[in-house]
């Protein structure tokens, strides 16, 4: 797993990326990945309620940010969080 932190000037934002080289996320799961209760078939036999990424998205929205899951070629996933940087009053 790799963690990358960078900045964007347009728009002014902090970008955090978590990269792995695991099996990746099935394409058919991507549209509902951040929904409450969403779980892939590979995790059906593991404990959990499917709330983790739903909570991540909710927190990002509270900060006017975004989160997205991207393929990490040749395998794996990149979770990208974009947090806008506001100007101090």
Key attributes of the depicted protein:
mainly beta, Heat Shock Protein 90, 34% strand, protein histidine kinase activity, transmembrane helix, histidine kinase, TCS_sensor_his_kinase, HATPase_C_sf
Range of helix content: 10-25%
Task: Characterize the main sheet.
Answer: 4 strands, antiparallel
- Ends distance: 37 Å
Runs in which pLDDT lies below 50 for 5 or more consecutive residues are none
Name the strands of the widest sheet in spatial order. 1-2-4-3
Q: How many domain regions?
A: 1
Provide a quick synopsis of the model:
Its EC number is 2.7.13.3. One of its GO terms (molecular function) is protein histidine kinase activity. By secondary structure, the chain is mostly beta strands.
Describe, in plain words, how this protein is organized in 3D.
With 89 residues, the protein is mainly beta. It has one domain (2-84): 2-Layer Sandwich (Heat Shock Protein 90). It is built from 1 helix and 4 strands. Strands 1-2-4-3 form a 4-stranded antiparallel β-sheet, with helices on one face. The radius of gyration is 14 Å and the shape is globular. The model has no long low-confidence stretch (mean pLDDT 87).
